[in-house]
Design goal:
three-stranded antiparallel sheet, Aspartate Aminotransferase, domain 2, 2 domains, single chain, lyase activity, Aspartate Aminotransferase, domain 1, alpha/beta, seven-stranded mixed sheet, about 35% helix
Length: about 350
């Protein structure tokens, strides 16, 4: 058992794979287990899940720094980004990073039949080139290797008229950065937000068009009254983009997100990046200001696994992720695995 920032975690020693699957706190895990126990006993009631959905939504709003009225719920990043992609004008020019996670890029590429043109450039050029495009869609932190996009350059491009859509899945929960200025910020919950897989959120500005293509009863202005028939009566805010929630996922998220939102953001950032940069220094790499490290060394993944370190193989490297429940002992274990003869 580990204690991190006031919460208990059952995370095993050497677990450095949060960028793939985050480990819930004991409290979040017990909340989900309790809800499932109620389901097994026939005590589950649909209306009872409105409250955890609302708490998780509010937690996401606080993490991004926007009003709760700007947050929509969904099940995955690609589904939420797809609502934005479906609304871009015909022949829109969209800029993405080369090698970007496909949940960010494919929803726009799928609009090619309308003449939407998607251009890939190196991540380091995204900020410089952003002003030449109608919309930029990019991860704040790259999934493959932890590189950070130039947020200041994107914010400047937005001030000049370029729309900016950010996938914060690999940063929200550890990166101390203001994202509230973006047109849309989307994130899945099952990584750094320490929630069950099956829930995602999008903070979206009203002026950024999105098509409620998956609208159903949960997107209604009065969700419990408008479950049958027409006309369509969508909610007046971002809830119009909601899809019906995965109930038990939101129960876990309702425990995790408000807690994360209430932490000292700078302290969490310093802890996670500090561990990652300590590992980088021990591996002969320069500091990078990211909680994700890619080790591109032959046999690295096998060496780490043999030492009980859980990592992920991504883009030709062994990817390590350092979150708030990790410690210097995890760093030492990984370094020992890679330097042992």
């Amino acid at each position: 058992m580990r204690v991190a920032f006031g919460e208990e975690f059952d995370v095993p020693d050497g677990y450095l794979n949060t960028a793939s699957i985050g480990i819930p706190s004991v409290a979040a895990g017990e909340a989900v287990a309790g809800a499932i126990a109620g389901w097994r006993a026939g005590a589950g009631r649909a209306g009872a899940f409105d409250e955890p959905v609302a708490r998780a939504r509010a937690g996401f709003a606080d993490l991004v720094g926007v009003g709760v009225d700007r947050v929509a719920i969904g099940s995955a990043v690609s589904a939420l980004v797809g609502l934005v992609a479906a609304a871009v004008p015909d022949h829109a020019r969209v800029l993405v990073a080369g090698g970007e996670f496909t949940s960010v890029t494919w929803p726009f590429a799928a609009q090619a039949g309308r003449g939407v043109e998607v251009t890939e450039v190196d991540l380091g050029q995204v900020g410089q080139r952003a002003g030449d495009f109608d919309l930029v869609a990019v991860s704040t932190v790259q999934s493959a290797d932890g590189r950070l996009v130039d947020l200041d350059a994107l914010r400047a491009a937005r001030a000049s008229g370029t729309r900016v859509v950010l996938d914060a899945t690999q940063s929200l929960g550890w990166l101390d950065a203001d994202l509230s200025w973006a047109d849309a910020v989307v994130a899945a919950g099952y990584k750094w937000l320490l929630s069950p897989r099956g829930v995602a959120w999008m903070a979206i500005r009203p002026e950024l068009a999105a098509v409620p293509a998956a609208a159903g009863w949960y997107a209604s202005a009065d969700r419990w009254a408008d479950v049958y028939g027409l006309p369509m009566t969508l909610a007046p805010d971002a809830r119009a983009l909601d899809t019906s929630p995965a109930w038990y996922c939101h129960v876990g998220a309702a425990a995790a997100l408000p807690w994360l939102a209430g932490l000292d953001r700078a302290a969490v950032h310093a802890h996670c990046v500090g561990l990652a940069d300590t590992f980088r220094a021990g591996s002969g790499m320069e500091p990078a200001g990211s909680a994700i490290v890619s080790v591109r060394r032959e046999g690295a993944g096998e060496r780490l696994a043999a030492a009980g370190v859980v990592s992920a193989a991504r883009a030709g490297g062994a990817r390590l992720a350092f979150h708030l429940y990790n410690t210097e002992d995890d760093v030492a274990r990984a370094l020992d695995a890679l330097t042992a003869r």
